Amino acid sequence: MTPTTMRLATFDRYGPPEVLTVTTAPVPRPQPGEVLVRVRAVSVNGGEAAVRSGRLRLLTGRRFPRRVGVDLVGEVVSATGRFAAGDLVWGLVGRRLGSAAEYVAVRADRLDHVPAGLDAVRAAALPSGTTAITALRDKAALAPGERLLVRGATGGVGHVAVQLGKAMGAHVTALAGASTLDLARELGADRAVDYRAPGELGRFDVVLDAVGTDLPAFRRLLAPGGRMVAIAFDLDHPVRSLGHIALHAPRRDRWVRGFSGNPTTPLFAELGRWVAAGAVEPRVDRVFPLAEVAAAHRAFEQGGVRGKIIVELP
Questions:
Q1: Domain boundaries, the chain
Q2: Three-state SS for 46?
Q3: Half-sphere exposure of 58 toward its Cβ, with a 13 Å CA cutoff?
Q4: Mean pLDDT over all residues of the chain?
Q5: Is 147:203 a contact under the CB 8 Å cutoff?
Q6: pLDDT tens for residues 19-45?
Q7: Confidence class of residue 296 from pLDDT cuts 50, 70 and 90?
């Protein structure tokens, strides 16, 4: 029987990870088109950390308490549509946060079955990989033989982008911290470079930027006909960063474009096919229980993350 209350992570003011606490709330009632999921694991993402810190307060306002958690892996509670009770699924709660909870009600079109062979924790390292698919396949139209630079190559999106780029036939240069260059090579990067001492990087057909700072410098690395997809922007200088994207997005040559990922079932199914084919594997850095969600956010913000920080709800 489903309980009436649940535990969840919330914060009642902006600030460092320590503002996060675990409280209780009623278990949500799914609306038409939604699925009630018993959450088993979620990952820590940059967007939710930015919201929690208050760096986006001009957009998010001052209504509290707020929840955290973007993606999820969990078990379907009751049979509905194409899902049976007990099915292990992955998905996103959309642009509203709140998946770091024991139960969530999620739109069915934002869920798909987890590929066979993945447990909940390892699966939770992959949903943000849908951003890598959209960036490389749909936005940049990465072609075999092209040169790809992945900036932030061992983080949540980056570690999937490196693998996906190789699977799509590109020559991949991974830009990451010195302590994670070994992981970049394990992921299949042809070249792994310390971002603090990059030297001469050369020219690239496609740049996938998961960091967001100093976008003009990285646009200058584009070869003729090059494309740059920025999935992050500089939170310290947002107007400058977003202005650079807006200025160069209309160009036909050496353009820079961004997007806000909001994947639905077909994109999760595509990610599942890459996983099933052995082209993409999850990398889990550390796992924290829900009671230590603040520690999970602290670990994320300290940097040097090798894949994903996971919060488990066993």
A1: 5-127+264-312, 129-258
A2: helix
A3: 4
A4: 95
A5: yes
A6: 999 999 999 999 999 999 999 999 999
A7: very high
Amino acid identity, position 52? R
**8-state DSSP, 200:** -
Name the nearest CA neighbour of 275 among 104, 75, 123, 76.
123
The predicted-structure confidence for 122-145, as pLDDT tens digits, reads as follows 999 999 999 999 999 999 999 999
- Retrieve residue 183's tokens: 């992981």
Residue 45: strand, helix, or coil: coil
Point out the least confidently predicted range of 92-96, 126-130, 266-270, 279-283. 92-96
CA angle 293, 268, 35 (to 5 degrees): 70
- Topology of the domain covering 5-127+264-312: Quinone Oxidoreductase; Chain A, domain 1 (3.90.180)
Q: Which of 54-58, 80-84, 197-201 has the lowest mean pLDDT?
A: 54-58
Q: Which two tokens stand for residue 313?
A: 């709800």
Which residues neighbour 238 within 8 Å (Cβ) at sequence distance 6 or greater?
none
How much is the pTM?
0.94
Residue 302 CA neighbour count, 13 Å, CB half = 13
By CB atoms closer than 10 A (0-12, 13-18, 19+), residue 17 is: buried
Only one residue has tokens 């190789």, namely 166
Return d(Cα 189, Cα 193) in angstroms, integer.
10
Report the alpha-carbon distance of residue 128 to residue 69 in Å, rounded. 12
Report the alpha-carbon distance of residue 23 to residue 11 in Å, rounded. Answer: 9
User: In degrees to the nearest 10, what's the CA dihedral of 276, 278, 284, 288?
Assistant: 20
Tell me what pLDDT residue 251 has. Answer: 86
Please say if the pLDDT value at position 238 is more than 70.
no
CATH superfamily of 129-258: NAD(P)-binding Rossmann-like Domain (3.40.50.720)
CB 192 within 8 A of CB 201: no
Q: For residue 237, is pLDDT > 80? A: no
